[in-house]
Structures are given as structure tokens and as C-alpha cells.
Amino acid sequence: MQDTPKIRDHYPPIEKDGMFPQGLLQVFIRQGSGQIHDFELGSRKISELELVLPMLRKMQDKNLLLADDLYNTYYHFCVVRQQNADIIVPGKRDRNYTVVKIISDGDEIVKINKPRRRPVYVSKEEWNNLPKTIFLRRLCYRYQTKEGLQTAILYTTIMDEKIEKTEIILKYTSRWDIEICIREIKMLMDINVLRAKSPDVLKKELTASLIAYNFVRYIIAKSVENTDFPPKENIFYQCTPTNRTILLDKRGRVFNRWSSGRNRKIEVEDY
Q: What does the DSSP assignment read for 94-108?
């Protein structure tokens, strides 16, 4: 972000990452269309687990969230269930649980007790009102890698036993499409650096860029609406230069290495 006093107040720089103010952007992306459903912008000094809460509390009945291991927390499971929605997360960390029911091989219903330690972003009243235990579905499966077979764990709030284990696993493994969309938003839409010099205009600039991204995604989705196959090539990579070098001066102003204002190319010698 630009280095102005007002922006510094809202988005203070992280010393180890440089002198410029930086923001934390979190988005919910609709799987299939790739469009942005919701987003939050906060300071880098705010935890991702806290910044995501307003979006979780706006989830609707039967929504399904595919998230990474960071969101594998007791509190976030409770928030999602309060919305009558569901979540699938990997279980990369060890978690204490008690098996309540075995559905099939590698498919169990488990009970998890509320942790003693309360997250700093949760009030005492809200924490005390949470249930003392929750029930989750724990899935264990193996997949092939270059190093051989690897074991993976998934936790989900989907308790309907009619939904088979393989369906949940396949659904989560399709999450990689969302990761690609996140890269497009940050880099190809050219919003890795925001130009606005006040917090209000900054949010307008970001919102306008995300709306433009959704329009492009809408066009892509409509272009293959009546076909049985996806587009052969990605429109973003065809229409957006990806090799530009973005430079910032000490005031946070943005420049490109070869800007349109230069009337000749400057040769740089290697010493």
C-alpha cells in the first residue's frame, strides 16, 4: 500500500517485511464459477482466524466451506455450525478425540472436547456459551505421490452418512482450483500493490478490481455454459502481461521498470 499517515494508522507496516503498509486480504471464492463471494481487508497485525469471522457469520444454510488446516479449530467449527453450514478441513496437526461410531474403514464419528485455552479474539461470554463437546466426521485416506503413498486426514461437520467418504474426499481435493483463482486475483489483476492514498479510497479501489474480476469470471462461465468441457485456454494468461516489474519509491508511489513515459530503453550493464 501507499505510505501515507492515514493508511499507516489503519495498516501499520510489519518491520520484517519492509517499510510499506501492508494489508491482509481474505476472500471466499465460489467453486465452479471462480467468482468472489465475499472478502475482508484487514491489517497484517490481525490474525487470519479473526479476520475471517465476519464472512463465516454471513454463511447461509447448507453452504460448504473448503479451508486449509489453519481453520481446523474448535471455535471455527462452532461458528460454521451456528450458521447451519458445513466445513471441510485437513487434519495435519494432532488432535485429541474419542471415536463414537465407525461408519466404514477410515470413516468415523468422533467427539472433541472444548479446549481450555480461549482464543484472544473471542470474548469470555461467547466462549462460555459454546458447547462443551462437538461431534465431527474424521476421514482417513491414502494418496499417491512421487515419494510413495501418503496418509491424509480430513475433518468435516458433514454428518449425513448417506454422503460417502469418497465424495467428501473428492470434493476437498478439488480445492486446488480455488488456489489458482487466489493467485489470479493477487497477481494477474494487478492488485498486489494498491495506489490509493486514503483508507476509504483504498477500499473502493480494491472493490472495483474485485468486481472487474467477477465480470471476467462471469464471461468465462457463460462462454462454456452449453458445453461439456472447460475453456481450452485461460483468458487471464492470454490478456494480461505477467512479466512486469513493479517498483516503489520511499513514498509508496508505484512505477514500472519500462514505463510509457520513457522515450528510449536504458541499457544496464553488468559489472
A: ----EEEEEEETTEE
CA distance 170 to 246: 39
Q: What are phi and psi of 116, to 5 degrees?
A: -75, -35
Q: Are 34 and 177 in contact (CB under 8 A)?
A: yes
DSSP 41: E
Question: Tens digits of per-residue pLDDT, 3-24?
Answer: 899 999 999 988 766 678 989 9
The C-alpha atoms of residue 235 and residue 220 are separated, in whole angstroms, by: 8
How many residues comprise the chain? 271
**156-209 confidence digits (pLDDT tens):** 999 999 999 999 999 998 887 666 667 777 766 778 888 899 999 999 999 998
| Integer Cα distance of 214 and 133 in angstroms | 40
Domain ranges of the chain: 47-180
Quote the CA–CA distance of 52 and 27 in Å, as a whole number: 8
State how far the Cα of 90 lies from the Cα of 172, in Å rounded to an integer. 9
Residue 211 C-alpha cell reads as 468486481
Whose grid coordinates read 467468482?
A: 35
Q: How many CB atoms lie within 10 A of CB 28?
A: 20
Reduced to 3 states, what is the DSSP secondary structure of residue 94? coil
For the CA atoms of the chain, what is the radius of gyration?
Answer: 22
Cell of 157: 461437520
End-to-end CA distance of the chain: 33
Distance CA 218, CA 20 (A): 34
Is the overall model pTM greater than 0.90, yes or no?
no
State how far the alpha carbon of 155 is from the alpha carbons of 42, 108, 137, 209, 258, in Å.
28, 10, 6, 34, 49
